[in-house]
Specification:
mainly alpha; 9% strand
Amino acid sequence: MKSSYTSETDKQLLNTGLDNLAAAKTESSANSAVATLKETITATQKRNKPAEDKAKAEAEAEAEKKAAEATKAAAEKAEVERKAAEKAEADRKAAEAAQATQAETANVNNTSASKWAIEDGYTWHTRKGHSTVIPPGGSLPPGYYWQVP
């Protein structure tokens, strides 16, 4: 009777059956009331079973839907995190490449950039008139040394 699927009519029938059982004065009338109550209970259960099954199926479908949504959200989050990690790795590699290019440009062995050549015995600060710019691929003149900026 406490089932949320039991109709008011069924509840009234069950209560009537209980009242008849309580009002029974003889054993045979009590047995008859018990038999009637059992029939009423069986009939009520049969009528309520489809509603209970439907409610259970709806609850399971809703749970499956929520689980699918949670799985989808987790997959989207993982994809966003993977893309962020890939971008961070690409940025790191680009920074390393830029740093390597910068170091290569400053290297005296680099043949793709102009370099200063300073006459032996002079420094960068006293080079005026004693230095020259060597074009890419040029060689160091005798009596000069490379000056890396």
